[in-house]
Amino acid sequence: MNSYKSLNDFQLLELIKSGDANAFAEIYERYWTLILHHALKMLKDNDEAKDLVQDVFVTLWIKIDQIDPNTNIAGFLYISTRNKILNLIRHNQIKTDYLSSLANFVSEPRNSALEELSAKNLNFVIEKEIQNLPVKMREIFELSRKKFLSHKEIADVLDISDKTVKKQINNAIRILKLRLNILPTLILLSSALPY
Questions:
Q1: Model's pTM, two decimal places?
Q2: pLDDT, tens only, 76-128
Q3: Separation in Å, CA 119 to CA 27, 63, 105, 115, 187
């Protein structure tokens, strides 16, 4: 492995592209501490930072064929880390906003129509409507709203474009709004639902 220490980043990148795990290990050793320090400054959580940096290096290994051979590897790792941190912060904010809006809904005084509809039945109706979405649309919607994945992450998981993900989520929301905005009908239906 000592011979790898004498190679520059571009040479190591070429070797990694050919599947050389030792070249990857050298890049990992060169930049692990630096990238971890950068992640720690932003996240302030050692375990979260380590997991994130590990993910950055896994992404490098998996997507090595998509990386230009003239890429500055230190810059690539730095930018990848920053982007993953921003995604993580955004996901945490989405979760916080979701929980906050749920708490507000529970604590707000409700009108008589909503009072008649128990929370259990409302959840049942919503879940039923989600399950009635077309299969691919439902899968994308659930990855977005239940797993809190970004459009880009969903596109990567399902091997589709970001544009398709956005369109499917918008269509799902439109369909669900149409179906769920008919409260009087839902209230009548809820009386027939199991408790």
A1: 0.48
A2: 999 989 988 888 877 766 656 555 655 555 555 554 444 555 556 666 777 88
A3: 53, 45, 11, 9, 12
**For residues 39, 40, 45 and 49, what is the CA-based torsion angle, rounded to 10 degrees?**
40
Show the tokens assigned to 78. 């730095």
Report residues of the chain scoring pLDDT below 50.
111-114, 183-195
- Distance CA(177)–CA(117), nearest Å, equals 17
Alpha helix ranges (H) inside 108-182: 112-116, 119-131, 135-145, 151-158, 162-180
CA 80 to chain centre: 15
Report angle CA 46, 48, 54 to the nearest 5 degrees.
Answer: 100
Measured distance CA(60)–CA(83) in Å, rounded: 14
Q: Which amino acid is at 8?
A: N
Q: In this predicted structure, what is the pLDDT of residue 118?
A: 55
Check: CB of residue 17 under 8 Å from CB of residue 64.
yes
Domains of the chain as residue ranges with CATH? 2-89 (1.10.1740.10), 110-190 (1.10.10.10)
Q: Count Cα neighbours of 76 within 13 Å in the Cβ-side half-sphere.
A: 20
